[in-house]
Amino acid sequence: MSDQQSHQPAPRPSDPPYEPTEAEIAALLSDDDPTDPDDVAWSLTDEFYGTDEAERTRPTNLPPDVRADYERSPWDGTGEAFAAGFLHHDPGNGPAGPGFSAGGLCDTAPPGPWLAAASADAHARRGELGESELIGLLCGWQRLTSWAQAGQTACLTTLVQRRKAQSTELARPELAEHVDDEAAAALALTGRSAARILQVSVTLAGLPEVLSALAAGRIDWVKACLFADLLAGLPGEVANDIAAAVLGAGDVSRKTSGQLRTALARAILAYDPDAAQRRREQARKDASVQTWAEPSGNGALAGRELSPADVVHADAQLTADARWLASHGLAGSTDELRAQAFTARLTGRSLHSLLPPSGEDPAVRTGPGASPEPSPGRSDIGNPDSPNPDSRPLGGTINLTMPLSAWAGLSDAPGDLAGHGPADAATCRDLAARTGPETGWCLTLTTGDGRAVAHACAGHRFPTAHDGTGIGGNSPAAAGPVLRWAAGLRDKLQYLETGNCGHARQSTAYRPQPPLVHLIQIRQRTCSFPSCRRPARRCDLDHVVPFGKGGATCECNLTPLCRRHHRGKQAPRWHLTQPEPGTLIWQLPHGRSYTVIPEPYPA
Known about the structure:
Helix content: 25-40%
Oligomer: single chain
């Protein structure tokens, strides 16, 4: 049955069955065009059959109430709310159709009652939908969920306003103190959960653009909570300015919660670094070490509201300890060994006590001819069994990025800690001051929007605070050595390829040389899959076009991929292209495409 036939309205039960006459049948089979419209059988006229255009736009598959709303909604000035083929299946390899397919009306429609009805109708026959339509329906439900949560938020804030007014009227302030208990009883929530929803709802009421973005399905509840939490305590006008800037920077609906958290934190730090410092110091009064039982029956231990520099230092040191334990024969993943080192240090045991009892540990072997292996990082990670562990320099590996002006003490522009997020200039300078003499330093030049364009490495020759130059302090006296160091790297700068690649660093070998690996990790600091934030240094460096199929070992064909997304890229119907260095386009099995560009540096 054709689409045209399938969309014919069913005859009313009262209509008598129509039997065409012989003349009408003959006219239907004739190839002759009638010269007089009056000679055309009435069953073949537009009034009976409908024009092609009218038939293509008839939404006969909508529920009656939605269809009525559609017919009276002047969406495009013609009274048409839905384009041709609404809710049709994907049109194969042709252009994207309307409905829930990519770019279709329902795929891009704001949430509301009619999208809810259309989604319910499509949901009832989701087994018949094409894959792109199914993803469109999934995204539609996501927008509707955000819309519903915005409605719930509005209900709660209205209830709060009423209870406050009643409290004032009756001079009974306690009436307004138990709105969370009312919500808990109504929603069958714990008191803590109800209080959390109420707190976020009240905060969002003061952030109208964020609440509007939630109602429009541009952000979800988790992302709305980020705005509420990170902007709490800021003056209302400032909070709204920051929210507007973050919401207006690109397509916020395509940002993950981690990306939004980074953008918000960076905007807050840039707005008032001193205010961020005061807020952190105030919160540090609530510093604590907390314990709780895990669902598995094990226990958990965590420090809260600690110094960011101390957290990064401790985190890097635990990773260095784990690597040392692994190199000395202790089995386990990095996370398992970090946990063992963590508890050993807190309980006063040496790392040597964790080593396997069988065999001889070369690190503790003594006697004639013994050449003991050094304990973890006698150069860059310190002695793990030092009697005063707080005195050793920063250990392990961290990636600290900050504007040169902030490092030199000429500004308070925020920096970035790979794996930890934005950090204020004072924290970055603190970490720089803790580094040992073996620390490697690099210089990356960026555009105004934070895109890396050139890079140079200085090896281990940067003058740190250990040689008395004052680098890493808060004084502008550090500016001279820092700027002279940066100027000295000018001749070493390597410019990253953009646009049409010149293949200047291309290799004929499968495995790229370390300098090229480093440059690509500078260009793209995380895995190149949408929403994945695994650091590039912990990813595979993948040939987008496989080396065995002619793919070049070059900037224009290499990109960092974590092991999971490396495997995904090799799965059937997954396709990845890199039209220019650093720009990745993923096409997934459901047919939709996603573009990934490098995350900007703090600028």
